[in-house]
Amino acid sequence: MLKDLVKENSLQNHIKLLEELSSPCVYGVVNGSANGLGCSKVGGLPHADKDFTWPKYKGVPLEFVAQLNLSDLEGTNLPDTGLLLFFYSNGVWTDKKMHKDFVRVIYVHDMGCLEVKEPEYEYKKRLFGLLKPKMIPQVFDEYGIGFCGGDSLPDLDNIDTIPSLSLFDNDDELLDSYCGLKWGLSEKAVLQIGGYPNPVQYDGIAAGAASIMEKGAATDWELLLEVDSKLGFMWGDAGRLYFYVHKDDLKTAEFADVWMEFQCH
C-alpha cells in the first residue's frame, strides 16, 4: 500500500526515507453487518460474560464505542484471544488523572459464554421537557469490522523528535504530497490499532497521556485504538477518539490506566 501511494503522490524519490519513517499498524474497515456473538464491530451493544458490569462515570453509564475480537488481529502487541470493549463518556472534557474513569477498556477473557449486554438507560429532559428526552447512554449504529495490515506515517508536528521530517515541511509541493500520502493510508479506515495516529488538531497525544497519567514518557505509550467519525458518530465536527496504553500495561494485558484524547475540527 505504501509504495503504491508514494507513486500516486509523486514521492518516488523519497521512498527510502518514507519506508524508514513508516510504522506498521492495523486498519479496521467496515465489513458488512455485525455477525454473531464475539465479532469485531463498532456500535450496537457489547458482548461479555456473566461477570460484566456496565461501566459508569459519576454514576452515569458510559457509551459503548467498539469491540475487538483479538483473534481477528495479526501484527499487534495485543493478546491473542478474548475481546476488548471500549467505552467513554461522550461530552466529558478533562485532563486530570483523577477523572480517568470517563474512559474504560474492558478485557473479556472468557469467550465461551458471551451474551449481549444492555445498560440501565437513563433519560435526560431537554428544553424543560418540551423535546423528547435524551436516552443515556446513546447506542450507536452497529457495523461489522474487518482488519488488514497497513503502514502509518508520523504527523509533521513531530519534527522536533524526527528531524528528517523537515524535508517535507520546507517545500510546499512536498508538504502537500506528504499530507496526501498520510491521508491516503488511512482513507478507508474506521479504526486503527498501533502505529502513528492521524491527529485532527495536533500530535501531542502520547505525551499528554504520559503527563496526565504520570507514567513514563511519550515513547512509552502506544496507540491502542483510533476511532474515526466516518460512520456518523457525533464527536464534535468530524472528530476522532485516540485511546493510548502504556507499553508495560499492554505486555501484561492491563487496561485500567488507558487514557483517551478527543480531537475535532
What does this structure look like?
This protein has a single domain, classed as Hypothetical protein YwqG fold, CATH 2.30.320.10. The chain is built from six helices and 16 strands. Strands 8-7-6-2-12-1-13-14-15-16 form a ten-stranded antiparallel sheet. The chain starts with a helix and ends with a strand.
Task: Give Rg in angstroms.
Answer: 19 Å
Biggest beta-sheet profile: 10 strands, antiparallel
Q: Would you identify the regions where 5 or more consecutive residues have pLDDT less than 50?
A: none
Tell me the overall shape: globular
Beta-strand portion reads 25-35%
Write out key terms for the chains shown.
two-stranded antiparallel ribbon; single chain; ten-stranded antiparallel sheet; 6 helices; Hypothetical protein YwqG fold; 265 residues; 17% helix; alpha+beta; globular
Question: Layout of helices and strands, plus pairs?
Answer:
Layout: H1 2-8, H2 15-21, E1 23-30, E2 41-42, E3 47-48, E4 56-57, E5 60-61, E6 63-69, E7 83-88, E8 103-108, E9 115-116, E10 122-126, E11 131-136, E12 143-152, H3 166-169, H4 172-185, E13 191-193, H5 205-212, E14 221-227, E15 240-246, H6 247-251, E16 259-263
Antiparallel strand pairs: 1-12, 1-13, 2-6, 2-12, 3-9, 4-5, 6-7, 7-8, 10-11, 13-14, 14-15, 15-16
